[in-house]
Design goal:
Helix content is 50%, strand content 12%. By secondary structure, the protein is an alpha/beta fold. It has a single domain, classed as Aldolase class I (TIM Barrel). It is globular, with a radius of gyration of 18 Å.
């Protein structure tokens, strides 16, 4: 599998009663397929997997296969603290016909690099599917360092890594020492830097509601190799990145953005709480401005 393009970690819609809105989840997936994203991730942190039961996660993965119908790539998250649980999610993903797995470090456990590699390799041996690693030490507490990457890199299935550490030196490390593991941008405000260093993909929550604008940056940098245009698009996107990352309400912002697009995705599940009116107004203004600016850039105006 080639990990190239824009990959959207899909939000999970909830109704007023807090239950998953399956019909609206199908609408979310259809909107992303129609927008031309190159892949969809189900069971990621943007999808609030941590607030869902095992049965809910399995049902959403199965529904995604049925809705997407091979029209774009489907990646299933296997995030869990117990290796056995991650293996079970991986085996289910293979059973239902998903295209790849998203494998993160087990949160809270704080494994050593060797232990973390054994965790990932156990999932790999069980499922034997293409894997995108997910390095997010701010959430998991551990870094997928050189020892880890050297060990897992011996398996052909570890084909990509979503790098979300925020450390620009990691971009250099991955590009220089681990070119066989495709580097994917997982830190939105560094997308331009990732593309400059040869990344061909971007996992971006904002593409839930601004897929065209995120695709525009990917196409400018990777397809057209026009970094002047890419810088202009990135400059327009940066205010959005600031809103998403400031205040600790990333998922809430993504879901409100989806609401602005006309998707009835509802609020977040506890322990998270919804945005307030002022926060919503700020995001609405940012979205309106960047859409207008990027439309002008892509039209050549």
């Amino acid at each position: 599998m080639k990990f190239e393009g824009i990959y959207t970690p899909a939000v999970t819609p909830f109704g007023p009663d807090g239950e998953i809105d399956r019909s609206e989840f199908a609408n979310v997936l259809e909107s992303l397929v129609d927008a031309g994203v190159h892949g969809i991730i189900v069971g990621g942190s943007t999808g609030e997997y941590y607030a869902q039961s095992t049965e809910e996660r399995r049902e959403l993965a199965k529904l995604a296969v049925q809705v997407i119908k091979n029209r774009t790539a489907l990646i299933i998250g296997t995030g869990a603290t117990r290796t056995e649980d991650s293996v079970a999610y991986a085996l289910h993903a293979r059973e239902i016909g998903a295209d790849a797995l998203l494998v993160a470090s087990p949160p809270y456990a704080l494994p050593t690099e060797r232990e973390n590699a054994v965790h990932a390799l156990t999932i790999d041996r069980a499922a034997n599917m293409p894997i995108m690693l997910y390095n997010y030490p701010a959430r998991t507490g551990v870094m997928m360092g050189e020892t880890f990457l050297s060990r897992v890199g011996r398996s052909k299935n570890f084909q990509a890594i979503k790098e979300s550490s925020g450390d620009v030196n990691r971009i250099h490390l991955l590009a220089r020492d681990f070119p066989h593991i495709e580097m994917s941008c997982g830190m939105d405000d560094q997308a331009l830097e990732f593309f400059a260093w040869g990344s061909k993909s971007w996992v971006c929550g904002g593409s839930n509601f601004l897929p065209k604008e995120h695709i525009a940056l990917y196409e400018a940098c990777v397809i057209e190799k026009n970094f002047d245009k890419g810088r202009a698009i990135m400059k327009a996107l940066l205010p959005l990145m600031a809103v998403l990352e400031n205040g600790g309400k990333f998922v809430q912002c993504i879901k409100f953005g989806a609401e602005l697009k006309g998707l009835k995705v509802g609020d977040v599940r506890p322990p998270l709480r919804p945005m307030n009116g002022e926060e919503k107004r700020a995001l609405r203004t940012v979205v309106t401005n960047l859409q207008r600016t990027i439309a002008q850039i892509t039209s050549g105006a």
